[in-house]
Amino acid sequence: MEVRVGYVSNSSSASSVVVPKEVVENCKHKDWTKDETILSMFFFDRCGATLSDEDKWDGLFDEGEYQFGWQTMEYNDFASKWNWLVLQAYYGGDEYMNKINDFLHEIDGRFEIDWNKTEKTTEYQGKYAYIDHQSVDARGTFDEIAPIGIAEFLLNSECYIDNGNDNGDYDWGDGDGDEDSDDE
Known about the structure:
With 184 residues, the protein is α+β, with helices and mostly antiparallel strands.
């Protein structure tokens, strides 16, 4: 058992989705379609140029984090949380991939992910997107956000991805032996 800040975990490098109780109690986006314009802006900027049937999106925002598990920081930005959901859905299979595409279709019927492209991003082709194997839990992730919905999770900065690496410092390539600062 590894004791971490505020909770106990039996995994080595774990990430998890956090939806504070207060967010559930004060959910502002119960009817997420009210935020369709905001959501459409996020997704159209990313995949609007690739809406033809032949050229679908890989589902990941380049601007967000797409490698989860080795950090000790939290991500509450829209793009990183979306990337987390897409990766969890990919690892979870058809049921969860359909949930993501259904969500996108509600915003704009043309928005859809090509999951074969997502698979390539998880296999060192282009960017290497992943969630640490001990943190892969599509059911847990989607159950955690179910009381507020995907839109509230994405748009509410109080919801976040918590990364709890306990493997010590990791050299992220900046030469100082420490990971990037947690001050984001």
